[in-house]
Amino acid sequence: MARIFGTSKSTLALRNRKRFLLCQLKVYPDSLRASLVERFSRCGKANCNCRHGGNKHGPFYYLTQCLAVGQINKFLLKAATQQEAARQGIDHYRRLQELLEELSQINAELLRREEPLADD
Ligand SMILES: [Zn+2]
Hints:
This protein is an alpha+beta fold. The protein has helices at about 10-25, 80-110; strands at about 35-40, 55-70, 70-75. Helix 1 runs antiparallel to helix 2. Zinc ion (ZN) binds near residues 43, 45, 50 and 57.
């Protein structure tokens, strides 16, 4: 679900906002569309504490990516450096997507007002 941005401003304000968004747009090389999931789990050892009311093992961090309906790419990120890289990449991707989404909503509104979309 997309966040809804305010598009009730004047056409001039929308165009200014659009120019600002275009300046902000940057594709970072580490952009990553994924989620970082934290998990705690029980191990396979029958007499381990985790099987007898003790704490589970973890946290373990998994990167998950939904590629298609029912098709998920998921793997464990073992190193803290990998986890940090994933956080950064996910954050960069989200920022880019949010900027693009706002740009798109402004363009839809400009189109509704029968305004041209290509920049002046
Ligand atoms: Zn255990």
